[in-house]
Amino acid sequence: MLTEERHDHIRRKLAAEGKVVAAELALEFDISEDTVRRDLRELARVGECRRVYGGALSPAPDLGSIAQRQGALVESKLSLARVVAGLVAPEQTLFVDAGSTNLAIAQALPRDLAITVVTNAPAVATALADHPNCRTMVIGGQFNSDKGACLGSHALRDIQRVRADLLILGTCGVDPRVGVSALDAEEAEIKRAMVEQSRQLVVPATADKIGTTAPFDVADTSRIDHLVVTKDADAVTIDTFRALGVTVHVAP
Amino acid sequence: MLTEERHDHIRRKLAAEGKVVAAELALEFDISEDTVRRDLRELARVGECRRVYGGALSPAPDLGSIAQRQGALVESKLSLARVVAGLVAPEQTLFVDAGSTNLAIAQALPRDLAITVVTNAPAVATALADHPNCRTMVIGGQFNSDKGACLGSHALRDIQRVRADLLILGTCGVDPRVGVSALDAEEAEIKRAMVEQSRQLVVPATADKIGTTAPFDVADTSRIDHLVVTKDADAVTIDTFRALGVTVHVAP
DNA sequence: ACCTGACTTGCACGATATTGCGCGTTCTGA
DNA sequence: TCAGAACGCGCAATATCGTGCAAGTCAGGT
Predict the structure, then answer these.
(1) A31 touches strand C (CB under 7 A)
(2) Which CATH number, 3.30.70.20, 3.40.50.11540, 3.40.50.1360, 3.30.360.10, labels domain B66-251?
(3) DSSP letter at A40?
(4) Alpha-carbon span B106 to B122, nearest angstrom
(5) pLDDT tens-digit series, residues B94-104
(6) B34: which nucleotide lies closest, measuring CA to C1'?
(7) Contact A80, A230 (CB under 8 A)
(8) Hey, what CATH class is A72-251 in?
(9) Do B53 and A126 lie within an 8 Å CB cutoff?
(10) Measured between CA atoms, how close is B53 to chain A, in angstroms?
């Protein structure tokens, strides 16, 4: 990883998200935080960012709605993302489902991690473009713009031809009694197919998803291997999951 | 291994990957790093790369701030995009190839145009998410992060199952004598398949692409229906295209 | 055949850049 | 106010760089 290459990457991330976190960059590039700070200092010296405690901000305060929206994501979803990234081992093959949380997870995967990602979300593929050791396979099909995912029979068939070590599932609702459920029949079918083809199931969920249900079943609670939740999730519900044998990770 | 041969190889690698590492090149060519550095110095002298500690980067790929690059895009590419959008009729099915120009075109398509878009570029699908009347079909397969496109046999097969009215082709080079050509063998094969399956061929090209050639043929000049160029394109070359029966549109 | 000069290459060596770590300081949130 | 996180600085280890130099290659001329 060349120094200038890191600078370029930081510049891009600043332009896209409006901010960068030093610890996160260190993880992403697999270098020490000292070096990250040096990079940020250098960029700040030429006016390409503003240094703040914990990282740096884009010099132009506001680039519009995208930066704001991403900022809101970064708070709760990025901490989920870091925990999920820790569950991924090198050389594994993983399904990454659609959804804004999963997009954040894809972005947070260590930049040099050597894995194979299979995804039906075009945005996830795009986000992984600067992960040089990540082989990305796109599941094609009818693109649903509400979900940001490829659905339909074509996608289903493609999924059924892949077997993955891990599935990172996008969730509409997750409840101890009914398991994972989805708002849409077709979406649910795609998700079920991915569950079917995966050895382990990881379910990242923000607090608002915990304890809620949706009409279409995706997977029983017993099928969940890892549930990753934010720290503001309901403690009682979490304990119920634990009692049912699910490994629950609480993101800080 | 001749010196110029090495230079060509480095140029190609820079174009494909955006960076080269001195130590890797030394290993690859089985020569000393000194010689590699001499090569990089020479290329940097004529502006074909930027030297950085550890290797070299593409001279001005997509660096700087994204805002800058988008600004530069908007100038020339948006005007291309508007012309191309005018060639699309409602209810048509079109292939949209990968490439930054095509991404700009997708974004510039009228927001409520009722069309079906088939694309092997995840970024194009994402860009079309807010076009409510646009049905989008994604071509899956092995994702090539340098091109931002899905390639490989899977993509090829998917393409061969679709017949489109129009193909908006991403170009590496377009020349009156050799037609459209691409930098990469596999990329060229995908493009040829799309040409094969399309009734009409639209080639948008910024001025720097006009009159240039790349190693792998995609389509003869006679196959081009519409060539859309920016107004700073070479007038003589444009006239040659017109003389060969190509409809040339000059974007204002 | 032999020489010559231009060019290329690898090596040695001193100079410079980058990186991670330790340590004391500063900042932030409870 | 206090603990912990983030920070800056200096240092030592390493990696990379530039330059000078000698050996090797090769085409062209004698």
Answers:
(1) yes
(2) 3.40.50.1360
(3) H
(4) 12
(5) 999 998 788 88
(6) C10
(7) yes
(8) alpha beta
(9) no
(10) 7
